[in-house]
């Protein structure tokens, strides 16, 4: 870049914004001899399989709402049509909870079997999303902004909606970010997948979810280099010889401390 600027009489001792528009364009777009800043990032895009490249690229990437559609990501023509007084962009901006109420309020004219079938499918998918505790997400939420637990729960609902059978599902701690009160909903979803002749393997630490499994594979006896041995494999209901099993059966528990530290006067967090 410095050699290119020197060869083209572009000063490098002043701020970029003080350059002429021609000079700015030359640096960004480059020419036959110099690939330019844009060309440099195009080359980096081909290296995104490397973690440090993705981190580097993220420092120079921003997201802006389109001025024409205001972030709706639809053409103007598509936004002209409404259903239930909402266009498709407004429907996409609803939370799962709001979308459930919206689609329940829609009526299909008698005899329109195709629309009734589509509406029933939408209602079913939205119900699945509610069942796994994702009522707060908006329909237009991009997957890159979701946590790993949220992504897995979304994938679970897609799997249920597709009605696949004889499929192996492997989930890595799908309860991450899920409120404990919604564990039963997640368990019901996984059992539905099992009941339609699928196999569901879950890596999990939540005792409630482990306790509802049909079979348990417990690795131990400790963590890290002190683990990796099979401590128990078999029906969860008859687990024995396993520390995890002892906690599940209530034979062991984490004792409450006799007394707790008292926070100092200025150390309270008020919500």
Task: Please provide a brief summary of the model.
With 271 residues, this protein is an alpha+beta fold. 39% of the residues lie in helices and 10% in strands. The protein is built from 11 helices and 6 strands.
Characterize the structure shown.
With 271 residues, the protein is an alpha+beta fold. The chain has three domains: 1-59, no CATH class; 76-132, Up-down Bundle (ABC transporter ATPase like fold); 163-249, 3-Layer(aba) Sandwich (Rossmann fold), CATH 3.40.50.300. The chain has helices at 2-7, 21-29, 36-45, 51-58, 88-92, 96-105, 113-131, 148-162, 183-195, 207-211, 243-248, and strands at 82-83, 86-87, 168-172, 199-203, 215-220, 229-235. A two-stranded antiparallel ribbon has the order 1-2. α2 runs parallel beside α3 (36-45), α6 runs antiparallel to α7 (113-131) and α8 runs parallel beside α9 (183-195). The two termini are 51 Å apart. The model has no long low-confidence stretch (mean pLDDT 91).
């Amino acid at each position: 870049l410095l050699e290119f600027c020197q060869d083209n009489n572009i000063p490098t001792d002043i701020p970029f914004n003080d350059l002429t528009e021609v000079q700015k364009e030359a640096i960004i777009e480059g020419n036959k001899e110099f690939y330019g800043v844009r060309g440099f990032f195009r080359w980096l895009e081909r290296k995104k399989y490397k973690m440090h490249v993705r981190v580097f690229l993220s420092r120079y990437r921003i997201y802006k709402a389109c001025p024409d559609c205001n972030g709706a990501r639809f053409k103007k023509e598509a936004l002209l049509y409404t259903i239930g007084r909402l266009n498709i962009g407004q429907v996409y901006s609803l939370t799962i909870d709001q979308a459930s109420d919206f689609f329940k309020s829609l009526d299909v004219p008698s005899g329109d079997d195709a629309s009734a079938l589509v509406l029933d499918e939408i209602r079913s998918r939205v119900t699945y999303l509610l069942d796994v505790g994702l009522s707060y997400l908006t329909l237009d939420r991009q997957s890159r902004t979701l946590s790993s637990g949220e992504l897995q729960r979304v994938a679970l609902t897609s799997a249920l909606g597709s009605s696949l059978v004889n499929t192996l599902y492997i989930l890595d701690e799908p309860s991450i970010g899920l409120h404990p009160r919604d564990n039963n909903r997640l368990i019901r979803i996984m059992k539905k997948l099992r009941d339609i002749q699928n196999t569901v393997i879950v890596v999990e630490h939540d005792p409630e979810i482990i306790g509802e499994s049909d079979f348990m594979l417990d690795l131990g006896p400790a963590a890290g280099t002190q683990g990796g041995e099979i401590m128990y494999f078999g029906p969860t209901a008859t687990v024995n010889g396993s520390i995890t099993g002892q906690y599940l059966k209530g034979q062991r528990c984490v004792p409450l401390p006799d007394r707790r530290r008292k926070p100092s006067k200025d150390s309270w967090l008020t919500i």
